[in-house]
Design goal:
This protein starts with a helix and ends with a helix. The longest helix is centred in the middle third of the chain and has 49 residues. Helix 2 packs across helix 4. It is 83% helix and 0% strand. It is mostly helical and 99 residues long.
């Protein structure tokens, strides 16, 4: 019975798939710390620019840059190009033409 299971072609495919899955898992495990460091650096850069945007544009555009959290969300919207020209940039250009 065991001999028939070992010689079955589907068993060979499953074993190969498990080996590939193991390699992918090990790759994800080894890159997790590097990805965490990159995420922390990205958050730090976002925070610095959110503070700058809050100080520069917070008084005139309180809805989008009134707080650091709102500024971070607006900067993320600009970074992902999510309707930033209509909802974010055009109202800013009215009061800050060189922004």
């Amino acid at each position: 019975m065991l001999r028939r299971l070992v010689d079955h072609p589907l068993t060979e495919r499953v074993v190969i798939a498990l080996i590939v899955l193991n390699a992918i898992t090990l790759g994800l495990e080894t890159s997790a710390s590097a990805m965490g460091s990159i995420m922390m650096l990205l958050i730090l850069i976002f925070y610095v620019f959110a503070v700058m945007a809050t100080k520069l544009f917070g008084e005139t555009h309180e809805e989008t840059f009134g707080s650091i959290g709102a500024s971070m969300l607006s900067l993320f919207q600009v970074m992902t190009l999510d309707a930033w020209s209509d909802g974010l940039m055009r109202p800013m250009l009215e009061k800050h033409p060189h922004a």
